Every structure is written in structure tokens, then in C-alpha cells.
Amino acid sequence: xxxxxxxxxxxxxxxxxxxxxxxxxxxxxxxxxxxxxxxxxxxxxxxxxxxxxxxxxxxxxxxxxxxxxxxxxxxxxxxxxxxxxxxxxxxxxxxxxxxxxxxxxxxxxxxxxxxxxxxxxxxxxxxxxxxxxxxxxxxxxxxxxxxxxxxxxxxxxxxxxxxxxxxxxxxxxxxxxxxxxxxxxxxxxxxxxxxxxxxxxxxxxxxxxxxxxxxxxxxxxxxxxxxxxxxxxxxxxxxxxxxxxxxxxxxxxxxxxxxxxxxxxxxxxxxxxxxxxxxxxxxxxxxxxxxxxxxxxxxxxxxxxxxxxxxxxxxxxxxxxxxxxxxxxxxxxxxxxxxxxxxxxxxxxxxxxxxxxxxxxxxxxxxxxxxxxxxxxxxxxxxxxxxxxxxxxxxxxxxx
Length: 400
Hints:
Layout: E1 2-7, H1 22-26, E2 37-40, E3 44-46, H2 52-58, E4 68-70, E5 89-90, E6 97-99, E7 105-110, E8 116-121, E9 127-130, E10 150-153, H3 159-167, E11 176-179, H4 189-198, E12 201-202, E13 209-211, E14 224-229, H5 235-241, E15 250-253, H6 262-274, E16 280-283, H7 287-292, E17 298-301, H8 303-313, H9 319-343, E18 348-353, H10 364-382, E19 386-391, E20 394-399
Parallel strand pairs: 3-4, 4-5, 9-10, 10-11, 11-12, 14-18, 14-19, 15-16, 15-17, 17-18
Antiparallel strand pairs: 1-2, 1-13, 2-3, 6-7, 7-8, 8-9, 19-20
């Protein structure tokens, strides 16, 4: 089955007309995107957009062989003029199946937002799922018998759609995930590619033709990632974003509850509100046990609070205790953690703080914490395939 993406942008396109934002200002050349529309084997057009005939011609195709035009979502503004020779645009009711004379079988998939998704099966049995913008499949509970060969949808706007499909194995290891409906809320260029790779997805320029079901190496998702940065740099948001397409995640909070601390309670509440409902939270500093066990991905937030707990346990803040065995006890505990990271089979994203770039702490205990955190970060990073530094909300790749 051959799929041509006549457009890959949001309904208003990218750049948006008259929009002065930075994303629209830089959306030029291959970064410019028309509203998403898919041409399947020259016989089926999914979504009718302005300029579809010219978009097809630029991609080396014609719409003269199209036998069916299906809409997935209503378009704002005036009705799109139907090009001459195309059949009237329609919509298949949820759950119903339409078979084309070309042999393609189309099933309307219910969505959790306005619009219709379509599962397209080629005469050879290859399956494609296309979802409208801002939507995810509704009512997915049972595992599917076979994953899709390709899924095309709003990965940046609805990453949970990918998570839902993975949960029922509709997206498998060999499924190609293509991000479309790209708007100015999504980053552009290398940053978009980096985020999509973390989700096991990719995007392509308008006019690209793909063969659905052909083998292609799926983006390799790093198994161990360390995200570091200063306070309020956006490092926790970056870490959470890297796992938002996974169906199940264990969020490891190393800070505890801190009874009576209202400000800390507000911070914890903010983090909880951001997390997907399917994520499970564990408040613990026993990271070695979690890393050595099998299970879903771990998001550890954060290593600096874990180190605080580890130093508390050996009374490392006291100079005498530090000299009389505290230092060696802490080294042992850190070594156990680093060894567990090296040997883990789980996907791990860990957050830490960079504290050595500012004012030198006024106390010996403060300087000790700064030094030990620097050593811990370096040792942990050595065991990670991917290391990011987040500054002002922007992620800079240090490794991977």
C-alpha cells in the first residue's frame, strides 16, 4: 500500500496566516506544512484540503483515479471546493465498514474527540490507521491480534493516543508512527525530530510517499536518559515528555511528603497534575531495588533529593561522621546505584540538578553536597545512552 502525504500540518497549515509567532516565522521550505491529507494508492483521499490537486501534482501523483474522498474532521471556514472529477466527500459512521472497488477496506474507528479515524486495509492485508487532529481511539480495552503496519496521527498534540495503542499492542515494535497535524505549538526542525524520536515516531515533509508495510528501522528510543539543569529550567517537563507515549510508567518521587511544608506540597501537586492518569507513583529512595526488577519505564525525579537522603543516612553533614566512615558509606551506596543503572533492563529517565555553576556554598556541608552531586551526576551520566542539559526550557543534547 502506497501512502502520499499531500500535507502534514494542522487544519490552518503552518505557518498560520497572519501569525507573528516564532514557530510560524521559521516555518519555511520543508518546514512549511499544508493541512494534512492522505492519498492512498491513488484511489482513496483522506481529508479534502485546499490545493489538493496541485499538492498531488507536486508529489508526482494525480487525483483522477480517486474513487472515494473521506473526511475525518470538520474544517473551519468556508467549504472547500471539490475539484472536478472527484467523487463527493463523505464520512463513514463509527464502526461501519466501506469496501472500495479497488479492494481497499475502510473501517471507521471511534475517537474520543470530534471526528472520525479510519483503519485502511489494502487488498494484500496491510493495515494503516489514520486519526484526526486532537483525537485518540476511544474504548480500547482488549489486545489486538496484530499491530498496524503504520499509524498516522497527532503525536505532538495527543501523545496519549500512541500510549493507548501501545497498551493494546496495536502499535508494535515494527509499527511506523508518523506525526501529522503539526501546528505552531510544536517545535520545528531538529527539536521536533528529537522529541518524536523519543516517542518512537517521526515526521516527513509534505509530498512524501511511503510504502506502508515496508521494513524500516523504527527510531531507537534510548533506554537510559539523564536530564539535568538548573531550578525551574524545565527539566522535569522534558523528562515527563520523553515517556508520555508509554502506556504505563512508574514515577519515582524521591522527595517524600515533607509533613507541614505547604510550599513543598504545592510543588508536588503541580507535578502530579501534569502526569498522565495511567502513571503510578512511588515515593521512595530505594532505587536499586526498582532498577534491578522488571517492569514498566521508571521516571526518577530526582537524583539530588536521593543524594540528600543518602547523605542523611550516613550523617554526612557532620565533619566527624564524614571522616569516620560516612564518606566510604556514601561511596558504597552511590556505587550500588550506578551499578544498578548499568545493569537495568528497564527504560529509565532520571532528573537531576546542576548546582556547581553558581555561588560557592558558605558551609562545609553545603560544599560537600555540591561536590558529591557533581560526582553522582557524572557517574550516572556515564551509564546513560542519552544525556540532556535543559536551559530556559530548551533541551541541549550532550550525548546520544
